[in-house]
């Protein structure tokens, strides 16, 4: 019984741990123009939280609550960064994190049902739909 309860939550917990670990490290500067540094870092935020949304959705299947959790986890991540030397919290990062989750939600709820059969099949295998 515990195995059945833990199974859908194991990947989201591991992903949250990965985000926590990445937030504990000092970010490296991307060589090149500042806009490229911004683009890479904010894209990484969106990707990490889009994946978090998808993993949580697999476990819960309640899009709004999953997005709410994603938002609050982003807040907690920024709070955590306030204690990491060389890092600082940013409201903009919470926005990009939540945007990543929102994009995953829109993709899953609106676009995936209209997707080609092969993509739907992969989504079924991954237990997204």
Description of the structure:
- This protein has helices at residues 2-23, 34-60, 63-81, 91-111, 117-125.
- The protein is globular.
- The two termini are 23 Å apart.
- The longest helix has 27 residues, at 34-60.
- The protein is built from five helices and no strands.
- Give the total of beta strands: 0
Q: Give the oligomeric state of the chains in this entry, treating copies of one chain as homo and distinct chains as hetero.
A: single chain
- Please state roughly what percent of the residues sit in beta strands, choosing from under 5%, 5-15%, 15-25%, 25-35%, 35-45% or over 45%: under 5%
* Overall pLDDT confidence: 92
Q: What's the alpha carbon Rg, rounded to whole Å?
A: 16 Å
The helix/strand order is HHHHH
Secondary structure: helix percent:
over 70%
Number of helices: 5
CA-CA gap between termini: 23 Å
Major β-sheet profile: none
- The residue ranges in which pLDDT falls below 50 over 5 or more consecutive positions are none
């Amino acid at each position: 019984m515990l195995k059945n309860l833990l199974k859908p939550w194991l990947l989201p917990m591991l992903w949250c741990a990965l985000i926590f670990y990445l937030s504990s490290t000092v970010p490296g500067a991307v060589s090149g123009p500042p806009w490229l540094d911004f683009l890479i870092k904010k894209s990484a935020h969106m990707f990490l939280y889009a994946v978090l949304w998808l993993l949580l959705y697999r476990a819960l299947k309640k899009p709004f609550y999953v997005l709410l959790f994603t938002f609050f986890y982003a807040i907690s991540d920024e709070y955590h960064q306030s204690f990491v030397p060389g890092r600082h919290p940013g409201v903009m990062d919470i926005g990009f994190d939540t945007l990543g989750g929102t994009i995953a939600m829109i993709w899953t709820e609106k676009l995936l049902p209209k997707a080609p059969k092969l993509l739907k099949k992969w989504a079924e295998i991954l237990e997204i739909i």
